Amino acid sequence: MNLMRIKYFVEVAKCGSFSRAAQLLYVSQPNLSRQIALMEQEVGFQLFRRNGKSIHLTRAGEYLYGQFRDLPEMTERAIANAEAISRRDAYSISIGVLDGQEVNALLEEYLRPLRENNPDVVIELERNSFRNLRQGLDRGTYDMLITMEFETEGREDWDSCELVRRPGAMMIRSDHPLARRETVSLADFKDEPFAAISREESPGGYQLLFRECAKHGFVPNVVRETSSPESLFLCVELGIGAAMLDRNTRLESSAAVRVVDLPDSHAAAMVAVWRKDNCNPMVTKLVKQMRKEP
Fold it and tell me: How far apart are CA 66 and CA 193, in angstroms?
């Protein structure tokens, strides 16, 4: 049963007249009558009782009319809304940003010209955890992520652009004995408890910690694995454990924490990430700006 026949049926039932319904539908009355007859054949029962020029719905017809009455209008409205969404999608971009990263100034640097050159663009920004960002990108919830470089390991279906690379650092309680030193090495923390993002939340970040510690001849004593950057920051602030992070988090401004550079550690890069099969034109334009392409 197609939507056209349902629309014809609803209009005839509403008007109580084939001739009046035909006028409103801009079709000939014989064609309208034929379509209703075909619908009756399709459902296998009579929809109208015909008595000369007057028609009345059968009980089965009344039931179908109650079910179908709003369907044509709802369908047309749904299609119109979908078309509007489709047009808006061409001028919108959804960006997921890693929790705890200080990126406002960086994002403004790239998003301002995008807005200026595309006045109708809708930019949606949302902070989230490592795992939720990855899943959101794969599901199409996000067009782009602002996250850490190690999150892209093994993802051949993703593309990325480096935004900023900063030295790694140790984050420790400001009253910790090592916090009084001007410089530290990762080796100085071989006997210290660590807090880390869990291996399930960020396999790349977890492996990076162990690789860096292995270079200095020890395995980190991870006493707390967290499911989000904010939980990790709290562990450092409460003195539960030290953490190896990049120098681009909110802990930089925390009075409870001392941030000490690790000159001999892996420099952490923040990157913009998108799926290679993403066809959103706003993504293409934003990436060109990030890569400083003409």
Answer: 68
Segment 127-180, tens digit of pLDDT: 999 999 999 998 888 999 999 999 999 999 999 999 988 878 899 999 999 988
pTM for this model (two decimals): 0.67
CB 247 within 8 A of CB 149: no
Look at the block and give the residue holding tokens 């602030």.
Answer: 237
In 3D, which of 13, 117, 24, 108 has the Cα closest to residue 66?
A: 13
φ, ψ of residue 137 to 5 degrees: the values are -70, -40
- Please enumerate in sequence order all residues whose Cβ is within 8 A of that of 87, keeping only pairs 6 or more positions apart, or say none: none
272 contacts: CB under 8 Å, gap ≥ 6: 144, 145, 146, 160, 161, 163, 286, 287, 290
Confirm if 237 and 111 have CB atoms less than 8 A apart.
Answer: no
Cβ neighbours of 286 (radius 10 Å):
25
Question: 3-class SS at 263?
Answer: coil
